[in-house]
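Bug report (template v2)

What were you trying to do?
Predict the complex of my protein with zinc ion.

What happened?
Run completed; filing so the output is reviewed.

Input:
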Amino acid sequence: MTFFKLNDVYPWQKTPWQQLTNRFPDIAHGLLFFGKNGCGKLDFTSHFVAWVLCLDKQPQQACGQCSSCLWLKSNTHPNYLHITVDEEKKTQPSIKIDKIRELQPFIQQTGEGWRVVVIEPADRLNTAAANALLKTLEEPGDRTILILVTEHFLKLPATIRSRLQRYALDRMTYQQAYSYVKKQLSDDAQVDLKLALGNGMPLQALKEHVWLTHRQEFLEDWIKIVKHKDTPMKYATKWTKTLSFYDFQTMLEYLLADIICVKLQQHIKNTDLDFSEIVRFYSLEQLFHLHEQVQKNKQLNRQNVQTNLMLDQLFTLFMNINGE
Ligand SMILES: [Zn+2]
């Protein structure tokens, strides 16, 4: 985690910040910070950790100069423990029990000051680890705070959830999200679009998407493939060269979801695009079939199937579908 990134929490996190800091030190020993991707929950967490450990707390932030703050800055704080997944292999890494066992000596040590443990993403605790953690949550040490961070709190076992005090970090008005994103962007016209693509979460909206500027061109190619029976291989090769598989896949998922929404007369995310032509070529059933194929490709990619082959197949599927 990055410490001392912010001078203050994000505007939409003022309420939980005030609740926590006003009550401190009378707060629960187990805290649950949750919110959607891109709400800034880790920034909030590191800001709060620094504040709890700081020896000269300011109302909005840690002082940045005391010995505790300096320890955090050099990443050597003896009273702070960060537990997370092993990133190395697998696509779905978990937090295993040995990591939770490491907690015990850390919590039982005696010494000056507060001790803080951050566990994230907490929904990745495997069953054995979650059970081991339960014991710690039942009898936490004095002046010890355990903070679990997750996207959805319902993903945690109920036994764990019930021992934690919850704080939502993603509650904001559209106006709050809008003005934050607007401040960071040079192009005002993109704020609504970026927020839509980022599920309304400001930090998610600010992520750079290389595919964003390619959507229109791809949509035009797609229409050509269906309409003129233009050779799909040509376009498959072109798009394999233009975008990485991941970026192409992400772009296609967004577009396909919107085309389905148009069919169902629901709100779309790519509000700057016109789907009225492409939507006429497919029935709802055919669109769901395409969607299914796109999901399958993700799995095939994990199994190291060549991406150009997948795209060849997919683009042929685009063409062969008979319209109304
Ligand atoms: Zn300090």
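What did the reviewer find?
The chain has a mean pLDDT of 92. The first helix runs from residue 14 to 23.
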